[in-house]
From TrEMBL:
Region (Disordered): 707-740
Keyword Signal: yes
SUPFAM superfamilies: Metalloproteases ('zincins'), catalytic domain (SSF55486)
Keywords per UniProt: Signal
Pfam family, one: Peptidase_M1
GO molecular function: metalloaminopeptidase activity; peptide binding; zinc ion binding
Organism of provenance: Fulvivirga marina
GO CC terms, sorted: cytoplasm; extracellular space; membrane
Signal peptide from the UniProt entry: 1-21
Lineage start: Bacteria, Pseudomonadati, Bacteroidota, Cytophagia, Cytophagales
GO BP: peptide catabolic process
Protein name: M1 family metallopeptidase
CDD domains for the chain: M1_APN_like
Peptidase M1 membrane alanine aminopeptidase domain sequence ranges: 408-561
Amino acid sequence: MRNKSVFLLLLTFLFINTTFAQEEWGQKFEQLGQQLPTPNSYRTGSGAPGVNYWQQQADYKIDVAIDDKKQILTGSETIKYYNNSPDVLTYLWVQLDQNVRASGNLNSQTKTGEIKDSTATKSFQSQMASADYEGGYKIKAVKDEAGKPLTHIINRTMMRIDLPQPMKKGDTFTFSIDWSYNIYDRMTIDGRGGYEYFPADDNYAYTCAQWFPRMAVYDDYEGWQNKQFIGRGEFALVFGDYQVNITVPADHIVAATGELTNAKEVLTKTQYERLEQARKSYEAPVFIVTEEEAIANEKNKATKTKTWKFAAKNVRDFAFASSRKYIWDAQAVKLETNTPLAMSFYPKEGNPLWAESTKAVKNTLEVYSARTFDYPYPVAISVNAANQGMEYPMICFNFGRPRNGVISERLRDGMVSVIVHEVGHNYFPMIVNSDERQWTWMDEGLNTFLEKETKRERYPELDLEWGTPKGIVTYMKGDKSNIRPIMTNSEQVVQFGYNAYGKPSAALTVLRETVMGPELFDAAFKEYANRWKFKHPKPADFFRSMEDASAVDLDWFWKGWFYSVDHVDVGVEEVKWFRLRTESNDIENKGKKVKKGDLTAKGEDNKAMDFSNGPEEFSLVETDPRYYGEFMNKVDDKAIMQKFADKNLYQVKFANKGGLVTPLIVEFTFTDGSKSTERIPAEIWRMNEKEVTKVFVFEKEVASIKFDPNEETADTNPDDNSFPPRENASKFDKFKRKVN
């Protein structure tokens, strides 16, 4: 009985230790498995939409008007909603995003802060939400197609509309909403849409976003996406067709999502002719409204109105801008399957910097199209708006104005970067329509990566560090209590810019340049984009598509970069230099006084410090017959010995100190000054995630070794990347000079 108890105790001890070892050493290369949703007929294990994939549709007819004296927006919309799901719906959810600024909104109620000794008044007003502004929608009517009121409940930024009859698969339901709201001053109230006031000429520029009640998404993944809009997590939206009539003062110029369908009615004959000319201008923009004309236009205020009519097909949202101050230029962009118009709208305050805007739009369309799919829409518009960068289908609002007439390189870089970024959002998430409310990185991270790539190709003279491995080192080595995994909901993210923009972009850069290689990465990335254009992808669809289209197992990569807060910190811990022991070596080494069995001079910590003591010798002996087993043939021992007789073998130990497994990029510098770089896949860590040792063979003698020489991996501590260590470099230099 006692022996049995001891045996069970030992067995339990072994089990616990085996389990601990598995948890400690094997988790980083475990497959994601249960962490990803189970594939089904809607979303496949390959990452592609399944045979039964479906998505809803919502078509809009909207009439909207802006009161330029009172800054009030009034609208009426008719929505036709299509139930393409296999589910029966008894109610619909509509997003009321302007209610994020209504009294008692969730954002204000949950905002944290503290009183500082000295605070700018503007910042304090924003912190205390004390601006004299009555925000939120005034919903005037919600009616069915026959004009009968519909029962509805408003829960902060969401409105539930109860259906008179359940909607089955294939049914449609048409209803209307009438509303208005006070447009807010963006100078005092932070927001994506609003107005900017120009006191010098007493004019307004309106950038209207989240301006109409919009259908929430209903999908196979979670049903209704009706999470409250708190302010940061952006939008989950349904594709549809839009007809929008925008009534503004007669002297306003309007830019909007979609094609202008009544151009001859709202433009002068000269403006219309210039617009047509721009459709054939590929080399330079054509001015539809010049700066001189815009300056003249802003001096008088029209008392009449005009209605600009726009139509847009298969878009997930609609935005517009309106002002009498706008300069307007346009240029055609020749893509393989489409010729969209790149356009810019901006006040004189943006010049001369904004003369470069349309070129940036053009560059973005060309690079993004090459990396994903041809831009499918008829226009791509950049609108100048102070202190802003925000995207919508076919139109975006971007900052950038000279300061006291000066255009610094930093300002130019900022303007180009924001235009490329916001125009790029047409691809992610306007077309590859991810859920921004839940996963910010799926649009911001992917888009930051392509923004960086566009700048690298078209603007190499500008700052290219943001969104690269080098650009996130400071963040990655920071306090882990102040960092969240990329796979974190938008509203819970800490250090939002790094988490949702910089780190995902850097991760994709590592993936392209170091893990997969450009050819495989580009093909897989393009496959994902084309699979999910005009659809609703989730994170698993991206992860699976990238693996499916490349034959590269990337579960370790997603786990480390997206699900953890580990960082890359690899140290070159120890290097040993070996040569095969031969008779000639023995004779040669007698003059060098090589100390047998001792590799190099040692430091106090007993680590190899340099190569000054020469190589350690080892022997190859003839193969014992037992190693051959049943084989009748044998290897040529002498030939193998001869092959390695004059080779230099370097045994290098690497330590993973940061936790994030990474490919090893190792640069060897030889005594003759030449270099060689070895690229070792991250799978080298699969049997031991903390420490690995590898032997390298060279004809030449190595003078120094360096991990990550070009800062490709986001390694956070370059001080331990080299051998000889930095503190030994001067000592070793003296040794090399003496030997040579």
